[in-house]
Amino acid sequence: MSKEEDSPVIRRTTRSSSSAPVKSNETEIKKNAVTYSPTINDLAFGEDKLSFNDLLSSFPGRHIQIKEIMRILGPQDCPMFPQFIYGGASTGKTSVVLQIFRHLNRPFVYASCRTCYSQRILFECILNQLLLHKKNAANGYSSAKRCEKPSDFVNFLREAVANVTNSLKGNLGELGGSKLGGGPNGSMLYLIFDNLELVREWDKSSCILPFLFNLSNILKMPEVGFIFISNTSPDTYYSNIGYLEPIPVYFPEYTEEDLRQIFLRSQSNRKLYSSFLDIVLRPFCRITRKVDELAAAFSSLFQKYCEPLSDLTSVPNEEMKRKLFSHFQPHIATSLNEIFWILSEPFLEVEPRSETMQKGITRKLEGDQEFAEMDFHMSTSAKYLLISAFLASRNPATLDASLFDSTGGSESRKRKRKASEKSMEQKEVAEQESLLKGPGTFPLERLLAIFQCITSVLDGYLDEEEHANDLLKVGRGDGLMSDVLLQLSSLCNANFIIKGGSCPLETTTRYRSTISEDMALKIARSLKFPLANYLYRR
Amino acid sequence: MGLQSDAEKAQSIIRSRLCNSSFVFKPLSDSPDSNYSKLKFIISSSITEGCNNSILLLGPRGSGKLAVLELVIYDLLQEHSDLISVIKLNGLLHNDDNCAFKEIARQLCLEHHLVFSKMASFDDNSQFMIAMLRECGLAHKTIIFVLDEFDSFAQGKQRLLYSLLDAMQSVTSQAVVIGVSCRLDADQLLEKRVRSRFSHRKLLFLPLSMEDVQRLLEHLLFLPVNTGLPHDFASQFNGKLRKVLADERFKEIIASCLNVQSTINNLLRFLFVAVSYMEPKLGFLSLENFKNALLSIQRQPKQEGIRDCSILELYILVCMKRLEVKEQNSYNFASVMKEYKSIHDSFHTSDYYARNVCLRAFERLLQRELICFTDSRGHGQSVEFRQVKLLISFGELQEGLKSYRSYPAILQKLLDR
């Protein structure tokens, strides 16, 4: 989603608050109440119009979709069937629709089911916009109407829409057909529901989804148009209640050619960037064709590509390109296997929607490269705790005694049995099972026991080798144990260890470690801890 | 320019016709054995004879049950407006009894110019309704209750239905209860005490016959010759349209549209898209418009989803498919990765990426809903270890691969074995 997409709600807020930026609080409220009360014109984009050609050129690769949506919207004041716009994330659905409304300058109400995260908030958000109500300090940030049930919503909506369309018609009548007034075009109102896929998770038992789909039928007002925008295709909405299917409009993923145009749009030195894209676009497209992810990857790569260049504005010739390529080539393969770099300074024209995607902290930290470069800043005891959690998750509990006996380590543990065919088979099945089950759970006591064993063994090692590393010279037991519960809770908060899955028989909580083996090994290496000796392998 | 504006006018005339359900159903209500005539007869007889009645209108969604009913009520209101008052409820909105009684009271108050109290309790409202029924019965006024989505009123304790139908047992009241539902077994959902009070009249709404479709098309698409539009444009438009309608290929298109779903609403939707595809510059509806409309309505979302995938995502799908072929019915990301690695080990594909890159691709597949978790809860387990399943069949995957622009040939090979 591109930058020019700003939801109308935000736009209206900025416009109103910018009118009185320096005044004191009271006067601002007063001004809001007296001179700036939202008018009917605020339902459309108003003064900053967009020509059709600008609209098309601002969305390369989306011409067919723009024309299709406009066709279904039809001429001014023409009733329409509900529209259902779907396509993967970051294919420009929302921004295309909003820019089309900017071009047409027709009144609309936009509500995203992501920001309006419950039935009541969604209803009230729509009604607030229709009733030209703005939440502010004067009204205690309350909504115009309190509305929780669909039945109330329909009654209010009918009333509000009738008012709005009447005043829109009145507006048109006054202007006498001349469109100079800057008011919205036409008296038809459009309701846009964005991120509809989230509604499915709101309340499993509620009938909000069939209600929304049937809303146009329930209202029976031809002067209201409905547009639904969703990440997922119409067939994911089927339920046993059923609904009248809206008209589908599909936004496919961008092709390689479209992507090239999109990336070139924001560049100052197009020739240079184009030669860069020649190299990277194809391999990256094999992994993903999402604009946001690619933009994130390309932004850092382009800097690397440009490193040998002194003058970024020069147009590269063939020889130069070859030189740049040979310099750059080694980076490609490694960067393909990386995910998601976060730059220190925001550079992107097309902003990655990282905040909207659900990503745990673990994910960002899991990549190998990240660990190589940024050291894992954690206290030593937290690292030990993490390792012991990892061991507790991977090793069967029955082997604890033999692994952590007084001799320490498992060097003595040798299994020299010949593998028969049957045992091999069993082994395979067990392996599959362990893959399916994932890391096991463990109670707190076991974690603490392993932790204590590990740290005591470590002391033994240190004594033997007389390796007096002052970093690791921690007092036996007590020093490390002092705040171990505190560390554990912070590790839980950081998602390295998950709480939950309590056993039904005993009431204690069980834990589970989420870190991968690579990461555990890395931590162990940083502690010089022989992790491999303690891992049980089948 | 003249042609273009005429064409735009024609387009908006047809579009508003398609959106106006009472216009659509006009021609279907002429014949004496249509649902319209039957329904009108039943209701008007119970109005004139002053008796109670209850009917169920059943038919698939979008077959025009409510539209016909509304047409009937509209006509009856024209005939004897002072003898009827209509209360409309919708199961999607008023499925809890409290809310339904409130809405009934609200509409009754509105109709009879009384003051409606928001604070009235459930008991107040239900007593008010019964009192109103009695009063209206004494005044020889029939109350028509329209219960849309009737099946959702039949959930729970059915208190609304019971008190409505029970009140109708008394001699003084005069009411018609009309249930509208797309569940054909709607009357089986009723409790015994409700069912015994319900008269089991049912009207079925059947799919359109071919003659009906023909009549509807003519009724909806031909422009009026005498009003608004210039005469020769309208007649030219109608002439060209007649040619299209007579075309064999057009009949095929209509048939394939109705084969999927032969309800009126589906037909209307199809016509709507066709009309909006009309080029104002050309000025007339062409066969091409109808063809495009069919294509844009009959979508195959799963195929589109597969076409949207990147190569890596396809690999993951193929790996999952292979696991299923191996009769390993439950798998998660970790086991998919094992399969992915074994493919790489034996074929040395060029597309071998790190585990976390694959995890991202895996998550994108989840987002596209080509795969999903088998359990909905899965708390305390990370994405990698939750069990997943494919939401596409073998055939769909294969067809999707074929329509993919340039996929590695190895994928097809992997899929076949």
UniProtKB/TrEMBL annotation, chain A:
Signal peptide: none annotated. Residues 59-201 form the Orc1-like AAA ATPase domain. The keyword Plastid does not apply. GO terms for cellular component: nuclear origin of replication recognition complex. Gene3D superfamilies: P-loop containing nucleotide triphosphate hydrolases. Residues 15-24 have a biased composition (Polar residues). It is found in: Nucleus. Residues 378-535 form the Origin recognition complex subunit 5 C-terminal domain. SUPFAM superfamilies: P-loop containing nucleoside triphosphate hydrolases. GO terms for biological process: DNA replication initiation. It comes from the Eukaryota. This is Orc1-like AAA ATPase domain-containing protein. It comes from Erythroxylum novogranatense. The lineage of its organism: Eukaryota, Viridiplantae, Streptophyta, Embryophyta, Tracheophyta.
Automatic annotation (TrEMBL), chain B:
Keywords: ATP-binding, DNA replication, DNA-binding, Nucleotide-binding, Nucleus. GO terms for molecular function: ATP binding; ATP hydrolysis activity; DNA replication origin binding. SUPFAM superfamilies: P-loop containing nucleoside triphosphate hydrolases (SSF52540). It is found in: Nucleus. Residues 216-400 form the Origin recognition complex subunit 4 C-terminal domain. One of its GO terms (cellular component) is nuclear origin of replication recognition complex. GO terms for biological process: DNA replication initiation. InterPro entries: ATPase_AAA_core (IPR003959), ORC4 (IPR016527), ORC4_C (IPR032705), P-loop_NTPase (IPR027417). Residues 55-201 form the ATPase AAA-type core domain. It holds the Pfam family ORC4_C. The keyword DNA-binding applies. PANTHER family: ORIGIN RECOGNITION COMPLEX SUBUNIT 4 (PTHR12087:SF0). Component of the origin recognition complex (ORC) that binds origins of replication. DNA-binding is ATP-dependent. The specific DNA sequences that define origins of replication have not been identified yet. ORC is required to assemble the pre-replication complex necessary to initiate DNA replication. Belongs to the ORC4 family. This is Origin of replication complex subunit 4.
